[in-house]
Design a protein that fits this description.
Number of helices: 25
Strand order of the largest sheet: 3-4-5
Distance between the termini: 55 Å
Number of strands: 7
Length: 678
């Protein structure tokens, strides 16, 4: 039972973050003390927030109130915690605590050490801003927290501001984020003019905007939140910012900051504008499918480990939107039970993606710190040198590939069930078409993700070292391994006990309008079922027991010598070395050729021979894919904006008389507007 009410608990968490940020700056010269204060304090504040959210879900009663009130101006920061807010707070805290512990060791490495005070303070402000986004009770509070979250994230992306890559990534992130913020402000202004209030209960009451205006408001919010979520084609900032940021921040951005966009789409687009139109659900489903498939296809072509993980964030945001789009289509048709399955799958994957993607980014941080590079082609043989990092990375790779009994399988299975359940229970031809396509895209995405992480894990951790840095690598310190062990354990538990998660999600979904638990849905602690059929139920724990028994039998046979037979690897008559190993480029080439219509690749092969071209001494191979969106969307758009800005230079004449004339013209126009409206 909470000793404090929700408002007091949130105030305590925010006050703790402000105090910790101040202490981090004051102790900046003593870097170890600074990191301990900043990140242990951050973990403690996240624990308070998680406890508050869990108490709300247990009670089932929403809480509303004021965190701050300035009486002279009547400006207030309000909060509202319902089931959806509590779920996203739990997702945030689940990842923020391990990241904070990991950062104690990570930011003590190399040039990060002297910036511990600055990074620790901004880290706390960022987490606090995201918490405030999830609990904001009115549009002003939400936009204040949203902008604070954007600015602090951009600052952390530019931590290594000496490098042009970091500066460019931070600038691109700021530009795209502010375009999104502009869309959100416009959407909220339209709703506020109809509601006469800025509070969310009034703004998101539903059906405030009539007809076409309602569709326009939906598009404004979907674009504004979609930029933050990194959906295609609004994703261009994401593969730049994630690799450039420090690994802790990359994990936080991928696992949580993208979910701020998903929170907004769920809160506003799906449930805040009245019953969704069918066209809205189709748009969300289409964008989700496009993001999932193109995200994983682009990930397969990446040889920068963090950039590869960044594109997989696009993929998993697409999977989340596939479930949410299925739920919105169900709401449009009045099928509340199908909506429950689709939205539950979407929110389940929100948590799962935060856990396994956080684990993968932390593992990548260990590898980058040990080798000094992000290039997969420079790795190899790291499993012998970094066994714990390799084990945890393998768990995350299996989870993101949707393999049972890990957590990625559970939420993706539930997403499949949403499509199958909707296809089977609907007589609408459009639903049959859309859900068939959605299920096929999800299946293709899962298969390609598994292939991508065969490459990522195999080239990075197996075989022989491909560089001196990989040969000299060593295991990360224990303070960086413990958070990965925590997240790997969560990957297993969330996959083994999906019924527990669905029981919590049911309390979240009961707070959303139009969603009803299907009568056929059942769960216990070990399994979950989407219907009454034989194949509608799954128990991952049973699969885990069977898998463990199989491994035990193989281990016993190997111990007796029945299967163990060690012989030298056949090298085709030559000596095996790092030069004869399979490369990431070679692994990806068949996929690039199959999907060449998407990639539009260019390849260059150059043979260097002294005696005969049939006996080359060296072969240089270079392949790259066409940056489609940058070349055909953002390039022309940028040139058009620059031309428009150049044409407006004539307005900035440098004349005081001209500027006064502009002011007078504006005042006259406003007076005429007021007169005409009255």
């Amino acid at each position: 039972m909470m000793l404090l009410d929700s408002g007091s608990s949130l105030s305590l968490a925010f006050a703790l973050r402000i105090g910790v940020a101040a202490l981090a700056l004051l102790t900046a010269r003593r870097t170890l003390v600074c990191r301990l204060v900043a990140f242990i304090g951050s973990a403690a504040a996240s624990l308070v927030t998680a406890t508050t959210a869990a108490a709300m879900l247990q009670s089932g009663v929403s809480r509303h109130g004021e965190l701050l009130l300035h009486r002279a101006s009547q400006f207030s920061i309000t909060y509202s915690i319902d089931g959806l807010s509590a779920w996203f707070l739990i997702v945030l805290s689940t990842l923020a605590i391990p990241i904070a512990i990991f950062s104690i060791g990570y930011f003590g490495h190399g040039h990060f050490d002297r910036r511990s005070g600055f990074v620790g303070a901004i880290f706390n402000v960022l987490i606090g801003a995201v918490e405030l986004v999830f609990v904001a009770g009115d549009a002003m509070t939400f936009l204040f927290a949203w902008e604070l979250m954007t600015l602090t994230a951009a600052v952390l992306v530019a931590t290594q501001h000496e490098e042009q890559e970091s500066r460019r990534a931070a600038y691109l992130y700021l530009v795209m984020s502010h375009v999104g913020t502009g869309c959100l402000i416009a959407g909220f202004l339209v709703l506020a003019s109809a509601a006469g209030s800025l509070s969310f209960p009034a703004l998101l009451a539903g059906n405030l905007a009539p007809g076409v205006e309602r569709d326009a408001v939906f598009l404004l919010f979907f674009v504004g939140f979609g930029i933050k979520a990194g959906i295609i084609p609004l994703h261009v900032w994401l593969p730049e910012a994630h690799p450039a940021a420090p690994t802790s921040i990359s994990a936080l951005m991928s696992g949580v900051l993208l979910k701020a966009g998903i929170y907004g789409i769920t809160r506003v687009c799906a449930f805040g504008l009245g019953v969704p139109r069918l066209s809205w659900g189709v748009i969300v489903l289409f964008v989700g499918g496009l993001s999932a498939v193109l995200g994983v296809l682009y990930a397969l072509m990446q040889h920068d480990l963090k950039r590869l993980l960044a594109y997989h964030s696009v993929e998993n945001i697409g999977i989340i939107l596939l479930g949410l789009g299925a739920g919105m289509i169900a709401l449009a048709y009045g099928r509340s039970e199908l909506a429950w399955i689709g939205v539950a799958a979407s929110l389940y994957h929100v948590l799962n993606h935060a856990v396994f993607k956080g684990l993968l980014f932390l593992g990548a941080g260990d590898v980058v710190m040990a080798t000094g590079t992000r290039q997969i082609e420079q790795f190899g043989g790291l499993l012998r040198r970094m066994p714990w990092t390799g084990l945890f990375f393998l768990v995350g790779a299996m989870a993101i590939s949707g393999l049972p009994p890990l957590n990625g399988f559970a939420s993706e299975w539930l997403t499949f069930q949403a499509f199958l359940f909707g296809f089977r229970g609907s007589a609408e031809p459009l639903v049959h078409l859309l859900f068939s396509i959605g299920g096929a895209l999800l299946a293709l995405t899962t298969a390609l993700a598994a292939a991508c992480f065969v490459k990522a894990f195999g080239i990075t951790f197996l075989a022989l070292p491909r560089s001196d840095a990989a040969a000299a690598a060593h295991e990360a310190p224990r303070v960086m391994l413990i958070p990965q062990a925590m997240l790997a354990t969560l990957c297993l538990l969330l996959g083994l006990f999906p019924g527990v998660v669905l029981r919590v999600l049911d309390r979240v979904l009961t707070s959303l309008p139009g969603v009803q638990q299907p009568a056929a849905v059942a769960w216990d602690g070990l399994g979950m079922a989407s219907g009454g059929g034989v194949f509608d139920r799954i128990v991952p724990f049973v699969f885990a027991i069977a898998l463990a028994c199989g491994v035990a039998v193989l281990g016993a046979l190997a111990a007796r010598g029945g299967l163990a037979r060690r012989v030298p690897t056949w090298g085709c008559g030559g000596e095996l070395s790092a030069r004869t190993e399979y490369t990431a480029t070679a692994f990806s080439k068949p996929v690039m050729m199959i999907f060449r219509a998407v990639y539009r690749p260019t390849r260059q092969v150059e043979s260097l021979a002294e005696v005969s071209p049939y006996f080359p001494q060296k072969v240089h191979y270079h392949a790259e894919i066409e940056p489609t969106f940058e070349r055909y969307v953002y390039g022309p758009l940028l040139r058009a904006v620059l031309r428009g800005a150049k044409s407006l230079k004539v307005v900035q004449a440098g004349s005081l008389h001209a500027y006064l004339a502009y002011v007078i013209a504006l005042v006259v126009w406003l007076m005429l507007l007021v007169w005409w409206r009255s």
